[in-house]
Amino acid sequence: MNKSGALFVYARGAIGGGYEQRLQMGDNRLADNGDFIGNPAFDPTLRLLYVNVPFPAPPYARGVVALRVAPDCTLSKAWQRATAPNVLDGGPNYPSITPTVANGVVYVVRSKNSLVYAFDAAKGTRLWSSGTRVRGRIYTAATVANGQLLVASADGSVYAFAP
Fold first, then answer.
1. Tens of pLDDT along 62-81?
2. Which one of 13, 63, 64, 148 is separated from 85 by 20 to 30 angstroms, measured CA to CA?
3. 1 assigned to some structural domain
């Protein structure tokens, strides 16, 4: 992913030959904001790549997009789910925080909204949202450890959620 809003797929043995596939997932008119940066998350069992999209470019929606990885490594949309509208307050950019995949769930952060969402990794069904529980902005990926979801916020707190 890069600041132009594009996700590129390269052949590992031929990177110098250029990209194999380019998906315009983010709004490139907002490229100077640098919001479409970071890494997608991959679930090798489901062969799905998850991308957090803060400013969408049709046909991709704002939120989380799951891309199916074909045997030739090309990507196609498996599902997508919207998340909260972006908070635009003139402060730092609205970054695309790397999603977290664990135990069949993909967790997506909306940094300036102080929100974490949980979606079924295979189907995209929304399972949970942190709502107003997190008080500070979230600028790091969520972590899953010992059956808990851990979220660090800019207010200096770490929030722990359990099923």
1. 889 999 999 999 999 999 99
2. 148
3. no
Q: What are phi and psi of 43, to 5 degrees?
A: -110, 105
Q: How far, in Å, CA of 52 to CA of 160, rounded?
A: 22
By residue range, what is the domain housing residue 73? 6-161
Terminal CA-to-CA distance of the chain, rounded, Å?
A: 32
Q: Residue 154 is part of a domain; what is its CATH number?
A: 2.40.128.630
Number of domains in the chain: 1
Q: How far is CA 43 from CA 1, 48, 51, in A?
A: 17, 5, 12
Domain annotation covers residue 45: yes
- Model pTM? 0.89
Instruction: Tell which residue, 147, 141, 105, 144, has the closest CA to residue 122.
Output: 105
Per-position DSSP letters for 109-154, written without gaps between them: EETTTTEEEEEETTT--EEEE-TT---S---S--EEETTEEEEE-T
Kindly state whether residue 76 falls inside one of the protein's structural domains.
yes
pLDDT band, very low/low/confident/very high, at 31 (cuts 50, 70, 90): very low
